[in-house]
Amino acid sequence: MEQERQAEIAKQELQRELARIQEQEQQAKLARDQKAQEQAAQQKRELEERARFAQEQERIRQAEYTHFGGQYKTIFKESFLLFIQSLF
């Protein structure tokens, strides 16, 4: 009778220990998942920032190209006639 009681107590202790270990594993998994989510969010923010930077660079490049093209057309129109006249 005493041995059965001791065995039952040992079995209950093992079950409690198993439940505690499973809870710790669950908490560790949640912590890893949260860390992975934070890393993914950080990578998303960095990607969005790079995309905004690329868009801004493209906008600047387009503005400079348009500005340069306008200057080139003006210079070409003014100097082309002089060039033709100087050939003859």
Describe the structure.
The mean pLDDT is 83. The chain is mainly α and 88 residues long. The protein is 98% helix and 0% strand. It is rod-shaped, with a radius of gyration of 37 Å. 0% of the residues are buried. It has one helix at residues 2-87. The termini are far apart.
What are the SSEs and their pairings?
Layout: H1 2-87
Shape: rod-shaped
Would you count the extended β strands for me? 0
Q: Count of helices?
A: 1
Class per helix and strand makeup? mainly alpha
Q: Roughly what is the average pLDDT, rounded to an integer?
A: 83
What composes the largest sheet?
none
- Beta-sheet strand percentage? under 5%
What order do the SSEs take from the amino end to the carboxyl end, as H and E? H
| N-to-C CA distance | 127 Å
Rg over CA atoms, rounded to whole Å, is: 37 Å
Which spans have pLDDT < 50 for at least 5 consecutive residues?
A: none
How helix-rich are the residues, as a percent range? over 70%
Keywords:
single chain, 88 residues, mainly alpha, rod-shaped
Quick structural gist:
This protein has one helix at residues 2-87.
